[in-house]
Amino acid sequence: MKIKSICCLGAGYVGGPTMAMIAAKCPDIQVTVADMNVKRIDAWNSDVLPVYEPGLDEVVASARGRNLHFTTDIRAAIAAADLIFVSVGTPTKDYGIGAGRAADLRYIESAARLIAEVSHGHKIIVEKSTIPVKTAIAIKSILAANSSSTATFDVLSNPEFLAEGTAIADLENPDRILIGGEPTPGGQAAVEALVSIYANWIPRERILTTNLWSSELSKLVANAFLAQRISSINSISALCEATGADCDEVARAIGMDSRIGPKFLKSSIGFGGSCFQKDILNLVYLCESFNLPHVSEYWRQVVHLNDWQKSRFVEKIVRSLFNTVNGKRIAILGFAFKKDTNDTRESPAIQVCRDLLREHAQLAIYDPRVPAEVIHHDLIQAGIPEKLLASNLEICTDPYAAAAGAHALATLTEWDEFRSLDLARIYDLMLKPAFVFDGRAVLPTAALKAHGFDAFTLGKGE
Ligand code: UDX
Ligand code: UDX
Question: 283 with 297: CB under 8 angstroms?
Answer without folding.
Answer: no
